[in-house]
Structures are given as C-alpha cells and as structure tokens.
Amino acid sequence: MKRLLLIVFLCIAHLTYAQTGNVYHEVFTKKDGLILDVPSSLVFDNDGFLWIGGMSLDARAIIHSSKPLVIQRFNGNTFHNILLPKKVNEIRSVSQIYKRSDGQFYITCGGLNNTVTLYLFNPVTTRFTEVPIEWGAATAKNLSDIYFYEGEEYLIIQRDREISVNKLKSSLAIEELFSFTSYENKFKVENTTVFIPYADLLIIGDDNFPLTFLDWNGNILHRYAADTFLRTRDIKANKFWIENTFEYNETQYVFIDGDPQLHEVDLENRSVVPTNIPNTSIDASSFKSINDAQGNHKVIKAEDGVLQFFELGKNGFKQTFEATIFKGTPVLKLLSEDLTKDLWLITDDNELHYFKFPTDEVVVASFYTYGFFDPKITKLEGNTPNVYRPDIFEEYLRRTREIVSYILVFREEAQKAKG
User: Residue 327 belongs to what H/E stretch?
Assistant: First the structure.
C-alpha cells in the first residue's frame, strides 16, 4: 500500500505539471546556497548529485582574500561546500570538473601567479590527488579542458609556445602523442580551446591561434591563416575560430565567432564551411550548444533576458522553447544526461537553472492518476484513500504503457519517412 501511495503522489505531481503545457523551470541562487559568484563547470557524480566549480569574488587575487575557494555539491535541495587544497599559489578558480569512467573527477584549477594545477578528486572520500605535470623551464603554463574520445581522455598542454596533445591515463600518467609550435602569434591554451577528434585526424583551434587540422602523428594537414590572430592584425577583422560545436546525424556542426551562420566540418577538404541546410542562422552574443550521451542536441541562446532553445533538422533550426528569465545576457554552461528529459544551465551571474521537458512519462502518470481516483479502485475514508482493487489499478498502468509503446512505433515510422 505504501508503494502505491508513493506512486500516486508522484503521479499527482506529474499531472499538475502536464496541465501547465509548459517546460518546468526552477532557479537557484545565492540565497539558496550557491556561493560561487561566477560558476563555470557542471558535472553529475555516480549518485546523481550535481557538482559545481567556478570562482568566488572573495577569492580573487586583486582582493588578497584569505578565504579559500570551494567546489559545491547540490542534492536538489541543499548546497554543500568542499574546500579545495591549500597551495603556495592559492587556487582562485576552477575551469573544469570532468568525470572519469570510474566516477572520480579531474578538476582543473587556476591559481596566483598564473599557475595551473590538475587534481584527481574522489567525490565519495573528498580526497584530492595532484596530477603530476612536467613543465620544464616553461613560464607560460596552461591546460585545455579534458576531452573524451573512443574510451580515452585527452589533454592539451601549453608550455610557452609549445602545444602538446596528450593521453591522460587512469594511473595519472601523461602520455604525449605529439607537439607543435607557432611563432607567428601569441596564444594561450584554455577551456575555450576546441578539440574535435576523428579516426584519422583531429582539429584544434582557439581564440588565440588559428584552426589547425592534424593527423594523430602531429603532421599539420591544413592550417588556417594566422593573420587575424597577430597583434598587427586589422582590429575590424574577425578571427576565424570555433566558438561552439555539436554533432547531428554524424556531422560535426560549428558556430564561428562573430558569424551567425551555422558551419560544418568538411573532412574531405579539411575545412570548415557554411552548411547547406536552410534556416541555420542564429544571431546572439551569448549561446551554447550541447550533445547528450544519446546523441541528442540543443542550441541555447540568451539575449537581453530572453532564453531560447533550438534543435536542428533537415529544414533548419526549430525553436522549441522561449522565456524571459534573465536580467541581461549571461554566459552559459550546460549539462544534461538526457536532453529529451531535462537540462541544467548555469550562468556567470550566480544562477543555476533547471528545466524539465514534457515526456511520455507525463502521459503515463496522468492516466495512472486518473485511475487512482476511479471509485472502482479507491474509496476515500475521511481524508485517507483506501485502494481496495490494486489489480485494476495495475491494469490501468499496463494499458497506458501499451498505448505509449504504439505511439513510439508511430514516431519512429514517421521519422524514417522524413529521412
């Protein structure tokens, strides 16, 4: 009986949600415990808790504050703070929290005097282990985000003007695959650095150095002109660098900084070109794209307080959501394990947003809740429901799920017909 009542209460919640006809939205801020003033990284742990990294204004170097920086764990209701390790060059920011296949995290930290440190972090024991990186005599030291491809983790390391592509082993060993150097322009590898891997080649680019196609031995196959990245460049000329990327139908699509037109990677000609798909222009000063593990994608646009969601199809971008929820035009960071169900979005002005999308589960819950109030199943004795025919109750659910399964088949057939 307790199990049935729990299901019923959940169904009632879903039914209320379904009746709104809208995406469910909730926002968490400093008053809820989000103390990071500039959040910049999101990840789930194996238990489903959300972890957040970023920067606190109290921890900025210019303030000379002794207040240590933290990462935060969110259980859906309460934020918990975990102190970062003490260093000679105090940690001032977290640029990435990346989850390994074993559930542990890599955390990339920036510190005083332009230092950078990579940690392995166990979210269960909260133990930090510094990843040893050989910097040599380099004075400019920088790390990219960590990228996953074909079961391996990759990391780009900058030592002065040398850029190396490396495999990051589970043992914390770093295996250098190759390196290359550019003397034409000043550059800085960071979390905006793009790494797009394929079986035979990879693409590396940044807002500080030109887009480069290389094979896995480090041979440069094609390199875009560096003139727009030079200090002597025409300041009116836009740099040709990839700002956002996502995959759809086995094609890598990208947005070039300053160009609203969607581009795609042309592997045959080793170039990035405007897509031939119509209606694929998004003009915004702040937007992000995301793929989930199932291959679903969304493009998220924020402009003058308005948030919009888009999805790409054969006829171009289709807008799926719009709401006025921001004060201005924030920088966004996205996270979702299944974009058909929900999305977490964090902004650089201390806001964490959660969006839950309507799914077939809502249909199931609605029918199930309707069945719960059927007098053939339940009697209300005072304020207490008494389910005296649970067999009929379960039959309602079975039938509803069968209907939903038919709907899924029809959808698949319709999708095949479109393709």
Answer: none
Residue 173, CA distances (Å) to 135, 153, 176 in order? 14, 12, 10
Q: Say which DSSP state 409 is in.
A: H
Are 49 and 42 within 8 A, CB to CB?
A: no
Nearest residue to 94 via CA among 57, 54, 134: 54
Q: Which runs of consecutive H residues, i.e. helices, occur in 292-389?
A: 360-372
Give the model's pLDDT for residue 181. 83
With CA atoms as reference, report the closest residue to 400 among 368, 357, 362.
368
DSSP 128-144: EEEPP---TT-SSEEEE
Beta bridge partners of 215: 201
Give the pLDDT confidence score for residue 375 in this predicted structure: 79
Q: pLDDT tens digit string along 393-411?
A: 777 777 776 766 666 566 5
- CA dist 208 and 196 (Å) reads 17
Contact criterion met (CB below 8 Å) for 61 and 84: no
Q: Is 391 helix (H, G, I), strand (E, B) or coil?
A: helix
Q: In a 3-state reduction of DSSP, which class is residue 411?
A: helix
Task: Give all strands (DSSP E) within 31-122, no chain letters.
Answer: 38-44, 50-55, 70-74, 79-83, 91-99, 105-111, 115-122
As a dihedral over the C-alpha atoms of residue 409, residue 412, residue 413, residue 416, rounded to 10 degrees, the angle is -170
The percent of the chain in helix, strand and coil, each rounded to the nearest 5, is 20, 45, 40
User: Among 31, 37, 68, which Cα is nearest to 52's?
Assistant: 37
pLDDT tens-digit profile of 379-396? Answer: 777 666 677 777 777 777
Burial of 377 (0-12, 13-18, 19+ CB in 10 A): buried
219-232 tens-digit pLDDT? 999 998 876 665 55
Going through 102-188 in order, the beta strands assigned E by DSSP cover 105-111, 115-122, 127-130, 141-149, 152-159, 162-168, 174-181
Calculate the dihedral angle through the C-alpha atoms of 180, 190, 101, 295, rounding to the nearest 10 degrees: -90
Placement of tokens 């979210």 in the chain: 123
